[in-house]
Amino acid sequence: MKAVAIEQFGELDQLKMRELPTPEPKSNEVQIKIAYAGVNPVDWKICTGMYAGRANYDFPIVLGADASGVVSKVGSGVSNLKVGDEVFACTRSSRLKDGCYAEYVCFDAQHVVKKPAHISFAEASAIPIGSLTAWQALKEAAQLKPSESILILAGAGGVGSMAIQIAHDLKATILTTAREKNHPYVKKLGAKYAIDYLKEDVVETVKKHFPKGVDVLLDCVGGTDVSKYMNAVRPGGRLVTIVAQPDVKKAEKHNIEVFYVSMRPDGEQLKAIGEKFENGTFKPIPIEEFPLANAKEALQKVKEGHVHGKIVLKISSSP
Fold first, then answer.
1. b (16+ CB within 10 A) / e for 47-81
2. What is the pTM assigned to this prediction?
3. Fold held by 130-260
4. Contact at 8 Å (CB) between 176 and 196?
5. How many angstroms separate the CA atoms of 104 and 93, rounded?
6. What is the pLDDT of residue 138?
7. Residues of the chain whose pLDDT is less than 70?
8. Which residues, other chains included, contact 148 with Cβ-Cβ below 8 Å and sequence gap of 6+?
9. Strand-strand pairing, 86-90 and 29-39
10. Range(s) for CATH 3.40.50.720 in the chain?
């Protein structure tokens, strides 16, 4: 099969189109003929070796863990899916090896879910990682409540776009940072207040609306700037980050709880998310398509930041 893979860690030039053996499903696995693969910041970080000390790996490494496509083979013991089912999945595993920048991938069937019927394969491939990350951050870590307020950093990105929709569904009051041109978009998703981080002091703007600070801060950005945003959280509030372990000592000084969320595949959660898309509660986020052969360019754009929505790779013609 055709796949984009790396033979060693390094710059994005390491990405090459290769011919690799087609994986076969093991017991309780399904093989997916991939139509589209989502592109995430973690992909370029894996390429450069940033995760080499955190996970086991075998070269060649095929990048990517967001997929949509059709079940092409079923392993023994699988009862929830059959050949021909249109599906989407997060295929992240503890070992970096067989990703979704490829024509086929095999994964545990319990985490592979039928695709919502009215959204496209391209739209579906943009959902799993971003939505599961936001779901686990807001529902499990923060335990966001209907009466609460939340500041979401980078609301126009892949995780942020889903976090706004999940928080809106939970009936929380949402503030988010986004460039001015993206304000109509994030407000359409459910944000009450949009803050242009390039032109406004984010903390000061938050305090205008919530003098004591917000109940929850969701960090989708990372970096040293996150500490200054702690001032936007009320004493006793919560900070959830999906990027890096937070500075616990600084959080203690601000009297706020901190949580770090490392997304995990969860078929039951993804099924619940799919149902929200099916009934119209959640809306597909904007996507930009690149062909698989242009994976390097796609990753470079993600690495540079400021992607509106999500970038996806077209692997094969949609069924």
1. beeeeeeeeebeebbbbbbbbbbbbbbbbeebeeb
2. 0.96
3. Rossmann fold (3.40.50)
4. no
5. 16
6. 98
7. 223-225, 318-319
8. 172, 173, 214, 215, 216
9. unpaired
10. 130-260
Strand partners of residue 216: 150, 238
Residues 6+ apart with CB under 8 A from 87: 30, 32, 68, 69, 70, 71, 81, 112, 113, 114, 115
* 87 φ, ψ (degrees, to nearest 5): -135, 170
Helix (H, G, I), strand (E, B) or coil at 142: coil
Q: What is the dihedral of CA 22, 294, 55, 274, to 10 degrees?
A: -80
Q: Which two tokens stand for residue 155?
A: 């609301």
Which two three-digit tokens encode residue 157? 């990105």
Looking at CATH, the fold of the domain delimited by 2-127+285-314 is given as Quinone Oxidoreductase; Chain A, domain 1 (3.90.180)
Interval 276-294: pLDDT, tens = 999 999 999 999 999 999 9
